[in-house]
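Example with several molecule types.
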Amino acid sequence: MRMFRISTRPSVFSIVFLILALLMLVFILTPLIKTCFSSSPGTIWHTLLDEDVYMSILMTASCGLMATVLGLILGVPLAYLLARHDFRGKRLLESLIDVPIVIPHSAVGIALLFVFGKQQLFGQVFYEIGLRFVDTLAGVVIAMMFVSVPFLIDSTRDGFKAVDPRMEKVARTLGASQWRTFWRVSLPLTWRSVVSGSIMMWARAISEFGAVLILAYHVPFFGEHPAVTPVLIFERFNNFGLDAARPIAVLVIIISLLAFVALRTFTIKEEKP
Amino acid sequence: MKVDLGEFVLKNINLDINTGEYFILLGPTGAGKTVLLEAIAGLYPLMQGKVFIDDREITRLAPEKRGISIVYQDQMLFPHLSVEKNIAFGLKASKCPRQQIKPLVDNIAELLNITHLLERRPTTLSGGEKQKVALARALVTKPAVLLLDEPLSALDPQSREVMRQELADIHRRLKITMVHVTHEFEEAVALGDRVAVLEQGEIAQVGTPQDILRRPASVFVAEFALSRNVFTANATDAGEGYAAADIGDAVVMVATHLRGPVHLTVRPEDILLSLEPLRSSARNAFEGTVTEVVERGSVVYVTVTVPPEFVCLVTSHSREELGLKEGVRVWLHFKATAVHAF
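Resulting structure tokens for the full complex:
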């Protein structure tokens, strides 16, 4: 084994791995960087002023936010219970929660339509209280939530797992109720995981194409009927070609990158308390 | 207080702990000591059985309503709060009026000598300091019972000494009922009014430390107690970091800075047996008579009465070589550094 030989001449192993690693990096970074510099700032600014574009981005971002808030309300308790309790079939349940990430998202759209459609199981219940999902903002929100909430649940669950249950037990013996213990001990010690999970969820939500396309194509939004930005990009590309689609793609990439920088800032701080 | 619970780890536990008592739960790792503490505090569900404080049943009471505080071996201080806020946590949770919180925190901090730490973050404290903060946090709520889960085990020997003293002081001054879990027999002897020995989820014996030492109720308890030679002694200065400790019938040289009334232990395996006095660096040498020989597989516990009685551990091989049996005169040798004083 010459893998760890100390010498001035690098080993074959190092050279091969370095080349392969560089190829991977080039593959990941080139399309991103080239796209970002393909349109002049003027073009991007001009694109942003296009009503279809900014209504689409506004709608996508706010639906992503709604989905994330809903995900927090319903997902954090689930994450907490998963972190604190062991039961038969827990591993299976945890895998099932992650399934939305791995199945084709057009299939997700069909599955959601099958449950939230007007004549369907949940669709009928919500119809009674005046909530419809097909081609509405609510439809965009649930499609986004379905495909992105696993990121929030997983991150939050791991956060709670990292808090020693005895920390909570001590709080209880000191006179804190279960609620107080959760708000004053468990959550403050987990909030970084919750925030980074939320950012990941939001970033994934605004990127959704397939599920949203099927459940809620163009939706009423402040007097307009925008589609979510990934769908808009596809439409522009289909109808007007690469040059029309590219500036919007640049905008989306920049927004996602900003979300990612925010996420990194949180995780880096976490490593160095 | 009465605990009577039964489930898969702990069986037939029936304990009466007197109000104001320093009670020790002694047992090896995995005997179910921590689970028993958590069960008393209401943190671990009981399959059956009942828990009482002063004839008031608390079996179904939520942990926050019991007035029982717990201090864990690794403290479990809240890392996101300052020391002061850690201590104030219980007061705020129990809706203590705001203006009373500060004086109560200052008071307990003074009692435990940690006033200078109040502004600090728990992560910056030493083990001993953390343990004091954890104690302060538990005591400030004035619990009826204080549960201590191996409170000395995670500390270095010096802080352990200080902390042991601290615990004895707290018990004396606050007259609080304390239940202290440990696997160290020394702690039981030094601190306990009474001791319960736990064996695989069952109570093997309850009694004073002396009872357990002199009249072990089972082989398990005997071996647990026998693993040490424990003496009470009066230590006087012998210079150069040594003390001469009078254990009644003999004077033992000990490497310690402690003076006055102390406890001493010598591990049975640290005592060297011979038929003639040896010239060696060991500062303790006594002649005595073998009064008991107990075989445990390849090792043999030999009790030698000087007096007092010393339990020594030898291999079967050396036992045969020396011809050790009851009535034989032998010499004991052990180093002053092999004696543990506390």
